[in-house]
Design brief:
By secondary structure, this protein is mainly beta. Helix content is 12%, strand content 40%. The N terminus is likely disordered.
């Protein structure tokens, strides 16, 4: 890729700006204290907050982040899943490449941990380029998540890989996991290659 095509966090943010103004962040304690006389709302909040209502949910004590992104998984029907480990040194991901057969339908699953506080309006943004030219950009609204000890996940709707000789080749992807408050939970670069067949 040329230097002019490297995506900065600001570019990600500006491209996703809308007139939508997220509500102010509230702590779990503030949510639990509000509207305590409304029984149905209290039960709803208990269901929503789950483990977090009994005390802070902290999965990785030495990690101050609220969202810890663990893996990106390529999901194709009748094929073994292929995963990218998103912990540790992310620069090594540039050396790993997914192979995708042209025309195949695939999904991307993001696995993550939410700890400490509720996260509002998580978004997954992906920009794809080939030979330094932008070819695709997508934004998926992931949703709001309460802290849990278990890994949570979001799977994108199915996408079809392009077909034909011109579609084949290597692609570079810039991914961003962000939220309504424009917190950058993780930004990483990875690549995939479209081939005529899985075995090419």
């Amino acid at each position: 890729m040329s230097e002019g095509d490297v995506t900065t966090p600001d570019e990600f943010e500006h491209e996703n700006e809308t007139n939508y103004k997220p509500p102010p962040e509230k702590t779990i304690e503030e949510i639990l204290q509000a509207d305590q006389d409304d029984e149905s709302l209290r039960k709803y909040k208990e269901t929503l907050l789950g483990q977090a209502q009994t005390g802070p949910v902290i999965v990785e004590h030495d990690n101050p982040r609220k969202v810890i992104v663990k893996r990106l998984v390529l999901v194709v029907a009748d094929r073994p899943e292929i995963a990218l480990d998103l912990t540790g040194d992310l620069s090594r991901l540039k050396k790993e490449t997914f192979v995708i057969k042209e025309g195949v339908s695939y999904r991307i699953r993001i696995e993550f941990i939410v700890q400490r506080e509720i996260v509002h309006g998580l978004k997954y943004v992906q920009k794809t380029s080939k030979l330094g030219m932008s070819v695709d950009k997508m934004t998926h609204m992931v949703g709001s998540y309460a802290p849990k000890m278990e890994i949570q996940s979001y799977t994108t709707p199915p996408e079809d890989a392009p077909t034909g000789m011109l579609a084949r080749g290597s692609y570079t992807v810039h991914s961003l996991f962000t939220d309504d408050d424009k917190n950058e939970h993780l930004k990483w670069e990875w690549s995939f290659e479209i081939k005529k067949d899985w075995k090419d």
